[in-house]
Each structure stands twice: as structure tokens, then as C-alpha cells.
Recover the amino acids of this structure.
């Protein structure tokens, strides 16, 4: 077994070397934002999607666009507005008078990386059209079904400042996003570097694709080979079950604060994301630190707190922090 793990470790060290090229190329344009870039790569490597919260101006669009250029994929930004229709997203049939027949006009969702900006600005019909495409990886226009490109990543943003005139995503639909991440302000040194790079009228630095989409698809199969010990599997199960039945883990004080704990998707995505996190570290096996590093992003939108918790200003983040503090680490 030790030899097998050593072989996997060596293979993954070699196969994950292309990640350094991606980081270096993105670093030509983006200052900092390592947390967001890592999470984007984790979802790409696990075929997932991201929900992102952050105030405007934190380079969310620029980061996603830069990543798509680094891996030679098609990027599409869709601004969600209250008057958006599902056809504006997916595409529609257009009647061609000259030919006397309908032709298909594909929508902007036919790209590799989609930035769904302010997804909560659009009505439920548009949100569900996007989420269905995310889930099924295909779109039906008229009577014809079209597969979406691979890799396919949706990064949906929500603006935490303005809530007037928005249509919040239902909890059941939010659960379809693998990760929910929150992007914070840069530190002083990073902001000074941003100022030096961006406070002029010249165009962005030239970028060259360093990875082909096929390499990402191939890397997904290798991520599956990352070794996960049964003790780590049990740790993941304990973390998720502690959000459902906290009393069983000696944290009875959380029982009145949690309305719904993590679903089985939480267990699946914790395991997948932990493997991808180990892959990003050029390592062929998962450690508890991988689970803890990615745990908040997987669980923060899957734990629904009660009205009592809201009244005490206790968030899902607080619940997760206590769960990780109390559940025994293998």
C-alpha cells in the first residue's frame, strides 16, 4: 500500500506541474486573489460550479476572464437583469424567410466559462434555466438538444450590498453549487501593486494560453486517483452529520440554531474538493488539512440556521467554525 501511494504521489506531482504555469500566467494580470483562483481551479478539476459573494470592484470578472485565457477556453459574461428571458440565456429558434425554415440561434451559455453576474437580479424562470443547464450539461432549443462544451464552469455572483428588487436563490437551488466563496478586500501591499499596475490608460499585459482544455479534462481523471484513507472518509461523514445531529458530537448548544444541516451532496463535494485541493498542492493523498481548508466553502451555503440563530446574529460560518473545532480530527 505504501508503494502504491508513493507511485500515485509521484504521478500526481508530475501531472499537476501545469498548475504552476497557470498561476504564473494569471499573476501577470491579477494581484493576489490566490484564494479565488484556487477555488476556480478546484471546481474546474471536479466539474463543479461556484457561487461567489463580494462587493463590486474586487476583480471577479477580470480573474475569471484571465483564467479562461490561460487555459484557452471561451469566456462569456452574462449580466442578469429583471427583464432577462430564458431565451436570452439559452438561445432560440429564428424563422428564416428566405429559406422558409427555422434556424437555431445559440445563446451565450454555449461557452466554457460563464460568469453569471448578479444572478439574483433575474426572475426564477431564468435562474432555473441556468441551473438546469448546469445540472444536465445540455440545452434543448425547440425539439433539438445540444450538449454544452467541456470543460463547463458557471461562476454566479451575488451582490451582498443591494437586496432591493432581487429574487434570492432558493436554498434547494443554491445546494447545486459545489462551493460558495466570499471574496474580501486586498491587503495594503496588494492594493499598492494593483494601483501601480492598473492606474494608467494602457491595455492589459499580453497573455498566452499555457494549458489546453484537454489537459483539464485529463487532470480530472487523475484527481480521482488521489488517495483518501478511510479515516479521512469517516472524518468527512462526521463533519456533515455534526451539522445534522450536533448533540451526537457533544455540541448540544448548536441544536436549536440549525434548521437544516448539510445534505449528502455536502459529503460528496467535501471529498471531491479535498482531493482537488491535494492535487493543487502536488500531493497524491488527502490530509485532514485539505478537508478543513475547503470545508467552509462547501458547507457555508448548505447549513440553514434557525430564526433563533438569526436573532442572535449567529451565521452558518459560526456554526461551521464550532463544528470544525469540536469534531475529532483523525
Amino acid at each position: 500500500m505504501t508503494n502504491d501511494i508513493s507511485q500515485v504521489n509521484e504521478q500526481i506531482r508530475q501531472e499537476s506541474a501545469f498548475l504552476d504555469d497557470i498561476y504564473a500566467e494569471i499573476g501577470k494580470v491579477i494581484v493576489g486573489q490566490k484564494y479565488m483562483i484556487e477555488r476556480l481551479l478546484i471546481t474546474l478539476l471536479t466539474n463543479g460550479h461556484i457561487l461567489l459573494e463580494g462587493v463590486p470592484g474586487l476583480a471577479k470578472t477580470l480573474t475569471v476572464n484571465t483564467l479562461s485565457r490561460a487555459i484557452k477556453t471561451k469566456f462569456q459574461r452574462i449580466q442578469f437583469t429583471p427583464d432577462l428571458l430564458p431565451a436570452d440565456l439559452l438561445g432560440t429558434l429564428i424563422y428564416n424567410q428566405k429559406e422558409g425554415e427555422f434556424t437555431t440561434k445559440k445563446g451565450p451559455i454555449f461557452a466554457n466559462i460563464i460568469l453569471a453576474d448578479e444572478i439574483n437580479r433575474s426572475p426564477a424562470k431564468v435562474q432555473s434555466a441556468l441551473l438546469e443547464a448546469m445540472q444536465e450539461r445540455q440545452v434543448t432549443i425547440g425539439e433539438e438538444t445540444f450538449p454544452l462544451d467541456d470543460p463547463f464552469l458557471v461562476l454566479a455572483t451575488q451582490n451582498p450590498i443591494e437586496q432591493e428588487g432581487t429574487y434570492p436563490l432558493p436554498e434547494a437551488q443554491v445546494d447545486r453549487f459545489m462551493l460558495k466563496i466570499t471574496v474580501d478586500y486586498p491587503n495594503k501591499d496588494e492594493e499598492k501593486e494593483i494601483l501601480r499596475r492598473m492606474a494608467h490608460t494602457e491595455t492589459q499585459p499580453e497573455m498566452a494560453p499555457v494549458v489546453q482544455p484537454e489537459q483539464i479534462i485529463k487532470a480530472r481523471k487523475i484527481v480521482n486517483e488521489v488517495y483518501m484513507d478511510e479515516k479521512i472518509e469517516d472524518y468527512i461523514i462526521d463533519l456533515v452529520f455534526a451539522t445534522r445531529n450536533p448533540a451526537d458530537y457533544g455540541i448540544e448548544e448548536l441544536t436549536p440554531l440549525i434548521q437544516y444541516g448539510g445534505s449528502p451532496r455536502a459529503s460528496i463535494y467535501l471529498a471531491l474538493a479535498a482531493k482537488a485541493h491535494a492535487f493543487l498542492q502536488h500531493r497524491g493523498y488527502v490530509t485532514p488539512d485539505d478537508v478543513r481548508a475547503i470545508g467552509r466553502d462547501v458547507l457555508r451555503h448548505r447549513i440553514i440556521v434557525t430564526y433563533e440563530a438569526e436573532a442572535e446574529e449567529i451565521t452558518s460560518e459560526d456554526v461551521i467554525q464550532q463544528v470544525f473545532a469540536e469534531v475529532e480530527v483523525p
